[in-house]
Amino acid sequence: MSIKFEILKESKTTKARLGKLYTCHGIIDTPVFMPVGTQATVKAMTPRELDDLGIQIILSNSYHLYLRPGYNLVAQAGGLHKFMGWKGAILTDSGGFQIFSLGKLNKISDEGVFFNSHIDGSKHFINPEKAMEIQIALGSDIAMAFDECAPYPSGKYQVEIAAQRTIQWAKRCKEAHHGSSQSLFGIVQGGAFKDLRIENANKLVELDFPGYAIGGLSVGEPKSLMYEILDCTVPCLPNNKPRYLMGVGAPQSILEGIIRGVDMFDCVLPTRNARNGSLLASSGNLSITNAKYKDDFTPLDNKCQCYTCQNFTRAYLRHLYMSNEILASILGTIHNLYFMSSLMKNIRLALLEDRLLEFKEEFLSNFLN
Amino acid sequence: MSIKFEILKESKTTKARLGKLYTCHGIIDTPVFMPVGTQATVKAMTPRELDDLGIQIILSNSYHLYLRPGYNLVAQAGGLHKFMGWKGAILTDSGGFQIFSLGKLNKISDEGVFFNSHIDGSKHFINPEKAMEIQIALGSDIAMAFDECAPYPSGKYQVEIAAQRTIQWAKRCKEAHHGSSQSLFGIVQGGAFKDLRIENANKLVELDFPGYAIGGLSVGEPKSLMYEILDCTVPCLPNNKPRYLMGVGAPQSILEGIIRGVDMFDCVLPTRNARNGSLLASSGNLSITNAKYKDDFTPLDNKCQCYTCQNFTRAYLRHLYMSNEILASILGTIHNLYFMSSLMKNIRLALLEDRLLEFKEEFLSNFLN
Fold first, then answer.
1. How far is B288 from chain A (nearest CA, A)?
2. Most A CBs within 10 Å: which of B325, B333, B335, B338, as the mutation test of the A interface?
3. Please, which of A82, A95, A282, B323 could form a disulfide with A62 given CB 3.0 to 4.6 Å?
4. How far apart are CA B341 and CA B54, in angstroms?
5. Is B266 an active-site residue?
């Protein structure tokens, strides 16, 4: 079964929409934030913990799984869901972004990308066809087209080449993916250039994908520029298809994205920050290792209902982080994912009740970062 | 409330006993294995996970908590139970063993021990009175006397000095501890010398503690020697008090200890080994990172009912360990603690049904290590 996207309600004052995304592995309430499970695990979380946190979909990385344990092994296991014991939905990225950001690039051409593994330096080649083969083998619910993301900042010529190649690759991905029950999303590129974004989005839409991602943002450009790009890109995308802003997970950016019509988000930050002691409180990011929390016997966030906040104090959490205890990462991740989950729930409720802008204002007046 | 120990049944064919240890924080079924929560956390486990695993008592380390976060901070938090959010019982060791094994010793005298922290090299002094002050502040259910554990092997003279000092210190501990509702256990020393063990046990029993530990074993001596020491030491201890064999957690040694009349055990190995990929299977220790498990899609132990074995394959677990994922430690620890918990449950059932020796034979015929 491919995905089905249903819009339940459209905001009257913004471009936001409340929706449901139907997959083989459950229904996803949108707007949604997808936690990242890079190596077939959301770091420090068991699948039952994710389930308890109300998480309906996670993202996993083709690049990492291709290198380790190998996509054939995952296929042998019966696919990624079975391999990692996760019953919810999975979106896999194509590996494009990781090859460009993590691997040691050897050569990019229209044909594909030669790169060296960040783990052992071994040589690899991935092209659109291979990226589809990998994701079909992984068996994710949603696969992403193989794209080229130019670094930021790049000159217009370089960005244009990458954007055009992304369209050519999207076509090849569609062809290679034909016949699969998995849903394949296209990715809009075009860097920080509005005209390139519009042109790229229009060309991509011609190819008719069941969903569209906006890639290459939140890579160092000012937030205001990201919002401007969204302002001009989203209207080019069809209304009845899900829209996914890749790699964005800061609460403020999520709110701004939703207001501009985005339905899906992913980001490593809530989980990575959790492991580094940067915790999401209703008052903003809190650095729990700060000495002032040494003897603070209040919860991390007294407004939070998560397991961590209901059972432990800031002083204890700080002790765990200072002692490099695994439990620090576990409790921090539970909290940060609960925070994101609950933020998204509140956003959806606000959308349902036609008060998204009021919610945003109230939320951001407390969340100071 | 101090502890109360009740013997429900004595084995007809061995010295084993089935019992219940009543504490302020719940009833403990004995014989019991206590997981170690060195720094106020059983590594990689949330308290609710420990609870789900049926764990009734954990051990925590005074030495570590004294250094970090400091026992006054734990006292301010309302004691160790509240600090770490653990509702079950806690036994704290005195710090003696860790000072001798981890700290950089400066000077031991009858008065006490000068040592340098293994964390930052800072200078500290602990004596019996201080060890009691620390454990009273931590508020554990059971505290341990401050002892001197001579390294193995040591000459008889050195062991005798340490054993005599341990008795002198036990007296001072008892005096310093007087009036506390916490229960204080004495520790028998005497190394690998049977006559010293017997003398030491007899002197300790004269001081009348609510429970007795046998320390300084499983420190490098042959197993057969440890069993011989138990054979001559346990009979010196009163029948109606719990007996605790410190630092022992290998399934075979636990069985041999129980048969010789021991009620309580602790060891870091089931949790530490779990983090290193050495997992307890009914067929013996299994090194999950072994290449032969790469594409083994069966459970770690198909006889095991734990969350890990019910939901994940050896291939997935191996992948997690090879990728240094935190989930490896979580799932490995869940499994190893479940294994220990279930071993102890089966031992208690066998004791109840008067078939301990049969159980031991059957268990060890499968568990090959």
1. 14
2. B325
3. A95
4. 7
5. yes
> For the stretch A343-361, what's the b/e string if a residue is b when 16 or more beta carbons lie within 10 angstroms of its beta carbon?
bbeebbebbeeeebeebbe
Give me the tens of pLDDT residue by residue for chain A, a chain 369 residues long: 689 999 999 999 999 999 999 999 999 999 999 999 999 999 999 999 999 999 999 999 999 999 999 999 999 999 999 999 999 999 999 988 888 887 777 789 999 999 999 999 999 999 999 999 999 999 999 999 999 999 999 999 999 999 999 999 999 999 999 999 999 999 999 999 999 999 999 999 999 999 999 999 999 999 999 999 999 999 999 999 999 999 999 999 999 999 999 999 999 999 999 999 999 999 999 999 999 999 999 999 999 999 999 999 999 999 999 999 999 999 999 999 999 999 999 999 999 999 999 999 999 999 986
Instruction: Quote the CA–CA distance of A100 and A98 in Å, as a whole number.
Output: 5
Q: Is residue B97 a known part of a binding site?
A: yes
Contact B84, A315 (CB under 8 A): no
Whether A76 sits inside 8 A of B311 (CB atoms) is no
Domain spanning A4-266: which superfamily? Queuine tRNA-ribosyltransferase-like (3.20.20.105)
ipTM confidence: 0.97
Please judge whether A330 and B40 are an interchain contact, meaning their C-beta atoms are less than 8 angstroms apart. no
* CATH class of the domain comprising B4-265: alpha beta
Instruction: List chain B domain ranges.
Output: 4-265, 268-369
Residues of B with CB under 8 A from a CB of A: 39-41, 43-48, 68-69, 73, 76-78, 83-85, 294-295, 297, 307, 311-313, 315-316, 318-320, 322-323, 325-327, 329-331
**Cis omega (within 30 of 0) for bond into B31:** yes
Specify the 3-state DSSP secondary structure of B265.
strand
Would you say A335 is a known binding-site residue?
yes
Q: Is the peptide bond before A69 cis (omega within 30 degrees of 0)?
A: yes
d(CA A55, CA A87): 11
Which residue of A38, A41, A58, A297 to mutate against B (max B Cβ within 10 Å)?
A: A41
